[in-house]
Design brief:
It holds the Pfam family DUF4251. The chain is of the alpha+beta class. Helix content is 22%, strand content 43%. A nine-stranded antiparallel β-sheet has the order 4-3-2-1-9-8-7-6-5.
């Protein structure tokens, strides 16, 4: 009876471990597919300005990436060299349809993704350093502001709704 219990316990542990490994491989494959198809959303959780303190973000801030567009809705904390004429245009908010998108392999796995919008007024470049698990750091460089970084993760983009 004792051998049966030990054998059953071993079998349950082996199945659990294999299931976890399989789930991790599935997640890495899913992240790899999202990057390859250029269809994902970066969800920002933390803002790291060049000056000032780190801020936990409590609202939904994100960058939606697709083959034909990049839609950015992020906050900004830091020094701006020129103020926007429209006060409602605070933060980093733009939609770009003309942009360069480059993906390079990271040193320890993962990817370095560079997005250079050509039709955004202020943002010069965004660099997303992404791990195989989907967690990453986004650095935004602007023409009229200090750079800012965001920590977060990527997730699958919701399908567009047909009208």
């Amino acid at each position: 009876m004792k051998k049966f219990l030990n054998g059953s316990l071993f079998l349950i542990m082996a199945i659990t471990c294999c299931g976890q490994l399989f789930a991790q491989d599935n997640k890495k494959d899913k992240i790899k597919d999202l990057v390859a198809t250029q269809s994902y959303v970066f969800k920002a959780q933390t803002a790291l300005p060049m000056s000032g303190r780190t801020r936990q973000l409590t609202s939904e801030y994100e960058v939606k990436v697709a083959k034909d567009s990049v839609i950015t809705y992020l906050p900004y904390f830091g020094r701006a060299y020129t103020a926007p004429l429209d006060p409602s245009k605070g933060g980093i908010q733009f939609t770009s349809r003309k942009f360069d998108y480059t993906v390079n392999n990271g040193k320890k796995g993962g990817w370095n993704i560079q997005i250079s919008p050509k039709d955004a007024d202020d943002v010069r470049q965004m660099v997303l350093m992404l791990s195989e698990d989907g967690y990453g750091t986004l650095q935004v460089s602007s023409n009229n502001r200090q750079p800012i970084m965001f920590n977060g993760y990527i997730t699958e983009r919701e399908p567009r709704k047909q009208k």
